[in-house]
Design brief:
It is a single chain. By secondary structure, this protein is mainly alpha-helical. It has 2 domains: 1-62, no CATH class; 65-139, Orthogonal Bundle (Arc Repressor Mutant, subunit A), CATH 1.10.10.10. It contains 6 helices and no strands. It is globular, with a radius of gyration of 16 Å.
Length: 139
């Protein structure tokens, strides 16, 4: 979601600090993962909102360069595709496919009904496919 490893690590530390402060308020320990991802999601959304405000003033187009191994290339291609998606679609793809959350867990983290998760997944897959085709990757 962040596309900046150093910034992601900083936000991750902030998330753990917030989670530790809020841990006494966790009433359902079995719901720890969705609860923690909700904290992380809010932190990322806060950062993205701040970044987009800053981007209106500063526009930098930096592209990260990695090793040329096939695995890194594939991860880079997927990351590029994800980076081009709107945040709601990007986060639902990450939660569902990369983190293997169920529809209900995604709904809990995102604070939306499971049906909305399904429609966002449908739209996100379509947008990601368009992004990848637009960048010249095979369909």
């Amino acid at each position: 979601m962040i596309n900046d490893l150093d910034r992601a690590e900083d936000i991750g530390q902030q998330v753990w600090a917030r989670a530790l402060r809020a841990l006494p308020g966790l009433n359902q320990p079995e719901r720890f993962a969705p609860w923690l991802f909700t904290i992380a999601r809010r932190s990322v959304i806060d950062w993205l909102a701040e970044k987009y405000r800053d981007d209106e003033v500063h526009t930098d187009d930096e592209v990260a360069v990695d090793d040329n191994t096939q695995a890194v290339l594939e991860r880079t291609q997927v990351a590029e595709g994800l980076a081009g998606l709107p945040p709601p679609e990007r986060e639902v793809l990450i939660l569902f496919y990369l983190l293997d959350f169920s529809l209900q867990e995604c709904a809990d983290v995102l604070g939306i009904p499971p049906g909305t998760v399904k429609s966002r997944l449908f739209r996100a897959r379509r947008l990601l496919r368009q992004q990848m085709i637009g960048k010249g990757y095979p369909a």
